[in-house]
Design goal:
The chain is mainly alpha-helical and 99 residues long. The protein has a domain of 68 residues. 60% of the residues lie in helices and 0% in strands. It has four helices and no strands. α2 packs antiparallel against α3 and α3 crosses α4.
C-alpha cells in the first residue's frame, strides 16, 4: 500500500462514528467554537464584530430561552445558534463590516 492511498478503516468503527454523530450531533454546545471565532475576528482587527459576537453569546445565555443541554436547557445546537443569530440580526446594523 502506498503512503498516499487512503487507509481503509474498520467499517464497524465508521458506523459507530456516524451513529454517535446522529445521536448527539444536535445537542453539541458550540459556545467554545463561537468564542474562538470571536478571538480570531479580534486578532484580524475586527474588534467591534468580535465584541458583538461575544455579547450575542452573553445575551443568549442571560435570556435562558435557548440554552444548550449541557447548560441546563433543552435547546439543540440549531436552536441555540438561531438565538445567537437573532441577536446579531437585531444589533448588527450598529457595527461596521470593515476592520
Amino acid at each position: 500500500m502506498s503512503p498516499h492511498e487512503p487507509k481503509k478503516g474498520n467499517p464497524s468503527s465508521r458506523y459507530k462514528t456516524l451513529e454517535i454523530a446522529r445521536l448527539f450531533g444536535t445537542i453539541i454546545n458550540p459556545t467554545a467554537m463561537l468564542l474562538s471565532g470571536a478571538m480570531l475576528l479580534e486578532y484580524l482587527g475586527y474588534v467591534e464584530q468580535a465584541r458583538l459576537l461575544e455579547v450575542a453569546l452573553e445575551q443568549t445565555y442571560r435570556q435562558g430561552t435557548a440554552l444548550p443541554h449541557d447548560q441546563g436547557g433543552n435547546a439543540g445546537t440549531k436552536a441555540f445558534v438561531e438565538g445567537i443569530e437573532a441577536y446579531l440580526a437585531d444589533h448588527a446594523e450598529n457595527v461596521s463590516l470593515s476592520a
